[in-house]
Amino acid sequence: MNLHDYQELAARTLGRDRTHEQQLANAALGLTGEAGEVAEVIKKHLFHATPLNHDALVKELGDCLWYIAAFATVLDLNLDDIAQRNIDKLRARYPEGFDPERSRNRTD
Length: 108
Fold this sequence. Notes:
Oligomer: single chain
Largest sheet: none
Shape: globular
Number of helices: 5
Structural class: mainly alpha
Low-confidence stretches: none
Helix content: over 70%
Radius of gyration: 17 Å
Order of helices and strands: HHHHH
Distance between the termini: 32 Å
Number of domains: 2
Mean pLDDT: 96
Number of strands: 0
């Protein structure tokens, strides 16, 4: 599945009865909440000595992706374009791959 197909399928479950502002708020708050759930899985692994729960991470990362797709849809953006622009930025920033020195001395 590519990102564009995912975005179209995920958009079927958007609350279309909400205002534009409500849709933006739902995407922002939902993404924040789901990112917190990802952090909670990692916290339990690192500080509570539980095995890393890959299934929970897949579920929570999927929920994050849904909210990112919701943002893109509400803003009439395309996830494929967002992904490409991010890769272009990373290639410009780290042409040979991640470099701690370049990271510390970034100008952008």
